[in-house]
Design brief:
2 copies of one chain form a homodimer. Chain A has 589 residues and is mostly helical. Chain A is 71% helix and 1% strand. Chain A has 18 helices and 2 strands. In chain A, strands 1-2 form a two-stranded antiparallel ribbon. In chain A, a hairpin with a 5-residue loop joins strand 1 and strand 2. The two termini of chain A are 42 Å apart. Chains A and B meet through helix 1, helix 2, helix 3, helix 10 and helix 11 of A and helix 1, helix 2, helix 3, helix 10 and helix 11 of B.
Chain lengths: 589, 589
């Protein structure tokens, strides 16, 4: 990669000095020219990765420091400072994206390699939808600014305009360039991509903070209405009157759009992170092909139960949000209802996950121990984002056990918290074991390729060759190959005349493990919909941890809200990441 | 590994049902027997890793939840609850260690494989020293309990006794069993080891919390003395009088021993984590040999400058701790002095790191891109633990820029904070680039092997064969082989008669890069001692972030102390981990 001649010249020089000092000055000159050349040579890859990573982290930390100062509501730092900073970052990202597109349009030879696993059409479609909702949010913000423009900072007008431009440009970038494997100007592009990653992460943090503050204000207002008058509510409304009639509509609607905006930014930053990881990567062309998904017969129970869960979730959400604003008794009954509903959901989810694990136990397949950074990262993200929720649940357990008061939902809260912990453990085990099992490759090579499922890091997957080869060695493979027509026509158990038994060396007869696969697919789709349900609840205002008062009594207002501000966004990310991982499990099963 | 017969029996059963239903009940019986057998078979490795990891994480989180409740000083959870919980964990660990030692003593065939890279004599010696200081701490605690035993809970007496027993047993375990590669009862041992890891981590957290609380109380007392009377100080002294005369001595001395106890537990948990990672690992015997260190001539400037830094640090610490308790003016001058001293230190450290990087730039060696989980983890820990300090520094920058007051140290604080960020960036780049460079293997195979340097994760290192082979191909190798005798006798530049030129293909002459290596070794040892200095300062009470008031004005008391409680322990860990990594750099250079 990098030549040794800089060193050689240095060695040469030293020895010439000791043997013949006459030509030393000439050699020194040469040495310095060579050092200069070496310094301007390509920077080592690992170092430029670390350097750009440090740049990105520090950009994020500046933003976090500003947010912490704003959270104090002190005089020194205002929201305008933070928004100006984010606006600058977005403008820099816009400039980089324009440069990137321009240089690629100009030099057609740069448009060579693409990583087909980087994303799929449906994920980009979904992100485009989220981007559209973000654009509506920007429109509301602009409307709000126009209404109050006589008394608010112009930054509040510039920010949504830049954000809208940024969103449009970024969606264009996602559609046409996110799969690129960059091989030119690597060090510079690394900085550009990591800047984009951390700009989106900062926008995510900003969204999370705004939402948390909104919840906290609502919570304080409710406490105030109940007579706890010692909490100060900071009003964020401007000092002048709105010149249009829609201002309150704008500011109220904004909070229903926040969850989508938040998910948009975190998913875009994950995709850009994959692009960053791909810079300078040598793509293995044999693995760089899309793989077809397996067939989906017998998908009845899972989707039906999932839809029931989803429907009941929406019902619970509506009832909860309405009742929690009312009298103490109504509030307590709403919280009790939430916990009962939650326990039922979690019992079903635990059973589903445990059944899945039991099926894996009866169906021994060697685990795939090959090196796979994608899977490793997926596992770590799943595990890491569970921690927030586990901490919250253990805090609830400690609060219930140590509580002196006894509201009606005290023990249901305890059971609910324990089930939340158990459910995450079981689900993590189920997902991780699914991802670490050898994949049956039942696909027909002649079938048209359907896009591969998006996992946050799916494009980092190494070649599946090893797995494919070993899959051919398993007895199931024969089974599948012979029965593939039957499976496709759905006649497996209805045509006893067809000889579908396969004799193995041990003299036993093999059944295609279709029932097991069907059960696994049902479990995956059911868990997927349950995870969507458990994402919807906290995302749209059903957070009994704020309302039940037990934890607040044990930990105090400030510690408990700090724990929640840390744990709730992690939990939301966990649910979304589980949905993506479970979709992968569903397609692999 | 695991047989497929469970699946086969299932398949067989299904088909027998469709063909001959007479023997179905017999087959069902068989099936269930088989499933039962399969369920009791060995659990897949990845799943048992995740399962034990989840167990450990949740144990830690229960402890954290209890700590948070204690931090609130509410009536529901007291320190006795937490100490009882930790005592239980320690007793479980003791039982596991006894079982482990007993089973290994009984079955001599189990004492087979050892991972020689897992630790070294000097690191175990260091940990034994730290353990001795912990035992003194336990003795002080017991003395304190004896003095107040009429009015304090008995848990306060049981805890130090169990902790002392735990410490002694654990040191024994470290000396005789930490290198074991476990291959029997894998799943059970995994739980045992991870329990030990997280028990030590919880003891670390408990130490960090006690220390942070002590600092906060001191800080509040100081603020109270200056007239800020609105802060409540929670007195932790018992209600009765001490029956012995040494109680106050015991409780005061305790806080000087905390930093050692804290480092003891975090390092033990890192070593146990390595043991956990080693469970079931197949050790590559060719790589499982100790490697000798390189020679250390020309080590003058680095150690001298390092000692100067260390000496001045201790001077600054003493002056700071004395002056900060006095009048406002003395306090301000102490803080100013600290920042000036810090800036000088950091300028030197940045220059040293930058020189090292510059040497690497002039001395191109291909980076080692081989897979190496140890190095990867070292890099991640270094990067991850920098985040706390960076956040703290950016908060200081925001606070200074937004401040309305202007104490004398305002702008030195800004410069100091920016240098802290820069220094960490440069040092990380230097360490990581050193770890990722191909190692010259200049050792003589006939020399007696000296123990390999301990890095937190050094035992996870994969075979160096690839590196060794490639090292033979580099031109430097020839150079070194020819000059090794000279290098050893220190005559390199004093014996012009010996023909030490080596002609390369390009017709140039090669010098052994000894000067560069000497410079790198000096830089590494200087940075190492500077990092020890920067560990000593916050560990023993020099935390101007609490005292300067600027950040507290911008972020408010509770947000700023939360940031410090998170960032300061991370910074302490960063410094210690840097010391270990720089020692590795020093030995590799």
């Amino acid at each position: 990669m990098v030549e040794h001649s800089g060193l050689d010249i240095m060695c040469l020089n030293k020895y010439c000095n000791s043997s013949s000092s006459s030509s030393s000055s000439e050699h020194e000159k040469k040495t310095f020219t060579k050092i200069k050349l070496n310094l301007s040579a390509d920077y080592p890859r690992k170092s430029s990765e670390i350097l750009s990573g440090q740049y990105g982290t520090n950009v994020l930390l500046i933003g976090l420091a500003l947010m912490l100062a704003i959270a104090h509501h002190g005089p020194s730092v205002t929201e305008e400072n933070l928004l100006s900073f984010i606006t600058c970052l977005m403008i820099i990202q816009l400039m980089w994206m324009m440069w990137y597109i321009w240089i690629r349009d100009r030099k057609s030879e740069l448009q060579t390699e693409k990583d087909v696993h980087a994303t799929t059409c449906w994920i980009r479609g979904g992100l485009t939808l989220l981007a559209l909702l973000s654009l509506i949010m920007d429109a509301f913000r602009i409307g709000h600014y126009v209404g109050f423009n006589s008394c608010v900072s112009h930054v509040l007008g510039v920010y949504p305009v830049v954000h809208a431009t940024h969103t449009i440009a970024q969606v264009h970038f996602l559609w046409f360039h996110i799969k690129d494997v960059i091989k030119n100007f690597e060090t510079f592009e690394r900085f550009g991509v990591i800047h984009a990653v951390f700009t989106n992460l900062l926008l995510w943090c900003n969204g999370v903070m705004s939402e948390a503050e909104h919840f906290l204000d609502n919570h304080k207002r409710r406490l105030y209405a109940q007579g706890y008058g010692n909490l100060t509510i900071v009003h964020s409304e401007p000092d002048c009157n709105c010149t249009t009639s829609a201002c309150s509509m704008f500011s109220n609607s904004l909070y229903y759009l926040y969850p989508f905006n938040i998910e948009y930014h975190i998913f875009v930053s994950a995709m850009l992170y994959v692009m960053w990881k791909n810079i300078g990567r040598v793509i293995d062309l044999t693995s760089n092909r899309k793989r077809s998904a397996t067939k989906n017969q017998g998908l009845i129970l899972g989707p039906i139960l999932g839809l029931v869960a989803l429907a009941s979730t929406i019902g619970v959400l509506v009832v909860y949000v309405i009742h929690v604003e009312e009298s103490l008794q109504m509030r307590q009954s709403a919280i009790s209802m939430f916990y009962c509903y939650g326990i039922i959901m979690l019992v079903f989810m635990c059973s589903a996950g445990a059944s899945g694990l039991l099926i894996y136990r009866t169906d021994h397949m060697p685990t795939d121990t090959s090196e796979n950074p994608s899977r490793q990262l997926d596992t770590e993200l799943l595990f890491g984002s569970s921690v927030g929720s586990w901490l919250m649940s253990w805090c609830s357990v400690v609060a219930v056990l140590g509580s002196t008061s006894s509201p009606p939902y005290r023990w249901t809260n305890l059971i609910y918290s324990l089930f939340i912990i158990l459910e995450k453990c079981v689900q993590n085990l189920f997902i991780i074991e699914s991802l670490y099992r050898h994949r049956d490759d039942r696909e027909d090579p002649d079938l048209p390729a359907t896009p591969k499922i998006f996992s946050v890091t799916s494009s980092l997957a190494p070649p599946y060759n090893g797995i494919l080869n070993r899959a051919y060695e398993t007895p199931e493979r024969d089974c599948v190959t012979m029965d593939s027509e039957q499976v496709e026509s759905g006649q497996v158990y209805r045509s006893p005349r067809k000889p579908s038994k396969v004799l193995l060396t041990e003299g036993t007869v093999v059944e295609p493990p279709c029932t097991k696969r069907q059960i696994l697919k049902n479990i995956a789709i059911f868990l997927l919909m349950c995870n969507i349900s458990l994402w919807i609840l906290p995302a749209f205002g059903c957070r009994p941890q704020y309302d039940n008062g037990l934890e607040q009594e044990a930990f105090g207002f400030s510690i408990w809200t700090t724990v929640l501000n840390f744990a709730v966004p992690m939990n939301l990310f966990y649910r979304m990441h589980s949905v993506a991982s479970l979709f992968e499990v569903f397609r692999r099963a």
